[in-house]
Protein: Peptide transporter
Amino acid sequence: MPKTKSNSLSILALQKFKKNFWGVLSFYFILFCGIVAVFAYVLAPDDSQNANQMHLSIHSKSPGFEVLMLTVPSQNSYDQSFFSQVFFGKKNTDTELPIESYSITNNAIKIIPYSEGEIVGISKEISLDLFPQDLSAKEITNAFVKNQKFILGTDKYGRDLLSRMLIGIRISFSIGFVAVLISLLLGVSLGAIAGYYGGKIDAAIMWLINVTWSIPTLLLVIAITLALGKGFWQVFIAVGLTMWVEVARIVRGQVLSVKQMQFVTAAKALGFTNFRIITKHILPNSLAPVIVISAANFASAILIESGLSFLGIGAQPPMASWGAMIKDHYSYIILGKAYLAVIPGLGIMSLVMSFMLIGNALRDALDVKN
Structure:
């Protein structure tokens, strides 16, 4: 049988989307970043919570820096599940010491701590009793002394920059998803009610939309954040509460257009409830522009969160956030170590650009005129 061409609008839209090179590339990049965000602690060299292992003696090192690292195990043990370690990081209280050299004495490891330049560090002795007793001295050094490489270097606190970047993806993705979810719940609900019922209900909702619209977004986010307090979830809620107005205006306009169509009149004649008509008949025919605006809002949410973290009222230390990383290191741009601020800046730029490109691709694919 000859292959028939599908007339389904969703399949036609998917076919048009597949022909958009930048849209498909952005989709795969976002998918890759999403997988990295979920398994960040599995991929990160520093899998402690928030990748917060500090080594002040090796701060601000350039990408590719290597050093001998002695790990002194903690005497405190935590009963932590595998699930918790994979998704929330290890509760690691081990002490990591960057060293230049080491030797075994009678009952101790003699080390020379890492130091800059020509200054030689003062030697220290660490008792072998701090290590597992069933291991010989050679086995202890083989297990607890490693040559550690920092692929992207270290930040000003001596933390692994690559690990902080990987963990920071979670903040950007989380703020995007939660903010867009809140904006969709509020925007679609209020926009549909205003467009469907009209009259005084429409006037009241439009008044609320216009008042919210007139306040600068960043100023409103700062006000909500200060009211709710500094923190992780407070920023999510604040950003979501400022992004619903665009969704509401678009949904209202779509509902005003769709509710005049004959299938809505037929649904009313059949005695269907207003709730069913809105949810089953009007909204499914109004979601194309909402999908496009959601992609743009995702990018906007990432930028707003980065700006708030840069101002110090976003995700709080020691939580890894790309905006906070730029805040901590922007002064290093004139000190010859611009990569400390440029690397997280490139992360923000690439993720935001991907969402904008996929938004443009969706707009072209869902445009029935093309």
About this structure: The chain has two domains: 66-150, 161-366.
